[in-house]
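Known limitations

Structure tokens in this collection are predictions and should be treated as such. Users comparing against experimental data should check residue numbering before alignment. To illustrate the layout, the record for AzlD domain-containing protein is reproduced below. The input appears on top and the generated tokens appear beneath it.
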Amino acid sequence: MTGLDFHGIDAIWWPYLFILLAGWLPTDVWRWLGVFSAGRLNERSPAVALARTIATSLVAAVIGRLVLLPGESLEAIPLAIRIAALAVGFAAYYWLGRKTLIAILFAEIVLLGVPWGLGII
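Generated tokens:
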């Protein structure tokens, strides 16, 4: 008998069920627990401050990794342009009302517009 891994069962529906059970369900349970418990937590408590700090640092680490050690097609864009896009997005976030979508749009303009203008992509 084969194990319950991704290639363990030959049925056509198995990979989809495997993704559901191993990928989506375990993370979604924690999201729903967070939604249900968020109303009972004090926003100024040390536990909430710690959770916010950890979440923010994880996002910063992912952004740093994408800028400094990219993979795939992002690697074709020079490091200076990736850092400039990060700086412009950061500045737009603070100067234009702390709106995340605006910051992302400004960073994307630099990230895609400058290489396109220089003929890199």
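For this record: The chain has a mean pLDDT of 85. The helical segments are 14-38, 46-68, 79-95, 100-118. Please report discrepancies through the issue tracker.
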